[in-house]
Amino acid sequence: xxxxxxxxxxxxxxxxxxxxxxxxxxxxxxxxEKSGITFTQNVVGDLPVIxxxxxxxxxxxxxxxxxxxxxxxxxxxxxxxxxxxxxxLMIVLADTGEGIPAEALPRVFDMMYRVEAHxxxxxxxxxxxxxxxxxxxxxxxxxxxxxxTVGKGTVVQIRLPL
Length: 162
Fold this sequence. Notes:
Elements: H1 2-6, E1 13-16, H2 17-34, E2 38-44, E3 49-52, H3 54-71, E4 77-85, E5 88-95, H4 129-139, E6 143-149, E7 153-161
Parallel strand pairs: 2-4
Antiparallel strand pairs: 1-3, 4-5, 5-7, 6-7
Helix pairs in contact: 2-3, 3-4
């Protein structure tokens, strides 16, 4: 979190979005297969190069993918889509996981908030992943939104300006 506060003082560099999405897919595919989850990557057209922090964007997407992998049961699916859309890069991560209760949705990006409050703290359940992802996206001038239905899954949409 402290490192993220320092990002704006560093100059942004070109980020090859095709490389970014392929890197996330390379990370996700074997983990999904091992868990019995179908992973699909769908890139529409050539993705742009944006100005930003490639490592941090990768970390943000991996936080989101890790959540999807953690909460999607064997036999489920995760889809990573990316496309250029009206002056922005649109990234959509959709899963067929357990979903998030409607009453929890307004708080999922709050620091230290965990939907699974009944589970002991440990491993990946610190309540930091989604807030960190949102902070990284915001530092790139982007927006992140999450929609979810219990028993059907979650869709995360990211819009990064070109």
